[in-house]
Amino acid sequence: MAEAQNVNGQEQDINQLLQVRREKLANLQAAGKDPFQITKYNQTHHTSDAIALYTEHEAKLLAGRVTPNVEGLDEQQAREVLNQDYNERRAIMDADPIEVSVAGRMMFKRVMGKASFCNIRDLKGNIQVYVARDAIGEESYADFKKSDIGDIYGVRGYVFRTKTGEISIHAVEMTMLTKSLQILPEKFHGLTDTDTRYRQRYVDLIMNNESKETFIKRSQIIKEIRNFLDSRNFMEVETPMLVSNAGGAAARPFETHYNALDEDVKLRISLELYLKRLIVGGLERVYEIGRVFRNEGVDTRHNPEFTLMELYQAYTDYEGMMELTESMFKYLAEKVCGTSVITYNGIEIDFGKPFERITMIDCIKKYTGIDFDAVEDDTAAKKLADEHHIEYEARHTKGDIINLFFEEFCEKNLIQPTFVMDHPLAISPLTKKKPSDPSKVERFELFINTWEMCNAYSELNDPIDQRERFAAQDAAFAAGDEEANHTDEDFLNALEIGMPPTGGIGYGIDRLVMLLTDSPAIRDVLLFPTMKSLS
């Protein structure tokens, strides 16, 4: 009962505070100072730029000046000597000031009679602002004293260093640009409820600098991927999101209806088949970074909509894709993290060393002792699965069982960058067979920190073989595999026109960002992750 009364009391207090904020806005509007009428502000610097400029300027103007030695002086004498030194320094700096106009959200305010301090946060950081009545005027100062944490201000003034050594702005003009009508979470604890952080990312970005830095770094990662591929003469393209046949991956698609055409369509689950059409058309190196949609579960590494990057390069194979991938991951680590050795969840991961290469068969043999090359057929493979308590479906073949063994016994051991190669034909419907062993394909997956980071092929360009594989996928769908591909006649037509030997690869951008930002869950690197509706 007492707990319920306390909750009701807190809600009443919050409602009163919210009402006060609205009354403050109404008073500003009545006085002709409506902040929402302001359309722009001349922001000359960000906070970190102002601090850097002042630091550099100070080093020049005060070059050679040393802090006085107060050793042997009593407390009063020492204070007087240091105060005089400060005043001399201020006089030198103020005679040639760094003038700035910054804009941002007020995150802290301390009112002290005729002078106050506040803290302004913008994209690049925070800076303290000294607000004096004599500098900005009585009316403006009275308005400032009534302001709230969360209000957005434009601050014009000059930069100085306080007696405590903090670089600050001495305001000569304070302009409220936006009145905040909501209450931000308490500063010390920040926004710690993860559900609220994901649903109200805008508040999370305000309160948690680590979260903001993660998304700034995400943008940098994507920028550097483009820079890397541009340096290798790849062309960025865009392909359809709404498709009649969602192929290129083993996943269930989302379905919708196209009213204008009165036709059911699907959201793409992959970028592959359209990009290969472009290789047929003579665009020899293409890539796309885009959203794909898979109607599947949500966990720390999966979100129904996510960002995929796929690229295709004519006249190379999966060996060429391995070289490109190894080079790109090292490049990204060095550009974004400043080093080829990163740490994820306390574990060091080295992109500077050559990545390990191992076949899927050898990897299973390494961790289980079982050599599937010596397993004769589907029946023998299923017997081994039974003995090792591996669940499978009646329709599964030896190739499927090999993949299940790999997932169960191998993935958890793959911490350092490892290319796992030469997958079974049965689980690779779009991949070229190995000439030396037609039961396997020229495919690899890169594993880091136990996660699959990318999937690459020597692309299948034989239209007759591709039609047979599509038929096998259609049969698998009929047998109950909801993630099987379907025959794509237009894609087969493109292959019949002729696609050159091609290497292709797909990267999950979100998982890559998780790795390079040391983020524990995929929702931490998606600005607005999929959440169940509160209603």
Features:
eight-stranded mixed sheet; 535 residues; 39% helix; elongated
Plain-language structure description:
This protein is 39% helix and 24% strand. It is an alpha+beta fold. The two termini are 27 Å apart. The protein has 16 helices and 20 strands. The longest helix has 29 residues, at 2-30. α9 runs parallel beside α15 (489-497).
List strands and helices in order, with pairings:
Blueprint: H1 2-30, H2 47-61, H3 75-94, E1 99-112, E2 115-122, E3 125-132, H4 133-136, H5 138-145, E4 152-161, E5 167-178, H6 194-199, H7 201-207, H8 209-231, E6 235-236, E7 242-243, E8 255-258, E9 263-267, H9 272-280, E10 285-293, E11 305-314, H10 318-337, E12 341-344, E13 347-350, E14 356-359, H11 360-368, H12 378-387, H13 398-409, E15 418-421, E16 433-434, E17 437-441, E18 443-448, E19 451-458, H14 463-478, H15 489-497, E20 502-508, H16 509-517
Parallel strand pairs: 3-5, 6-10, 14-15
Antiparallel strand pairs: 1-2, 1-4, 2-3, 4-5, 7-9, 8-9, 10-11, 11-20, 12-13, 15-18, 16-17, 18-19, 19-20
